[in-house]
Specification:
This protein has about 70 residues and is mainly beta. It has one domain (about 15-70). The protein has no helices and four strands. A hairpin with a 4-residue loop joins β3 and β4.
Length: about 70
């Protein structure tokens, strides 16, 4: 079940830093447009790229994959 709203080119790990404001998608919300906004606390993905986005933990404890970095 692909979601047409997901970013086809999510940002690379090197562009995401602790304290970055981002939009994530949580695993239980894959295939929906229930994105969540927050500030990165920890970067969880070890690799530079992931097709669904780099996995992060936000300040509020949510875990999801970064779809967009907020300007």
């Amino acid at each position: 079940m692909d979601n047409n709203n997901d970013n086809p080119n999510p940002p690379e790990r090197s562009k995401i830093k602790e304290g970055t404001a981002v939009w994530i998608i949580e695993k239980e919300n894959y295939g929906t447009n229930k994105y969540k906004q927050g500030i990165v606390k920890d970067i969880l993905s070890p690799r530079e790229n992931h097709p669904r986005g780099i996995k992060v933990r936000l300040m509020d404890g949510s875990v999801g994959r970064v779809q967009w970095i907020m300007e």
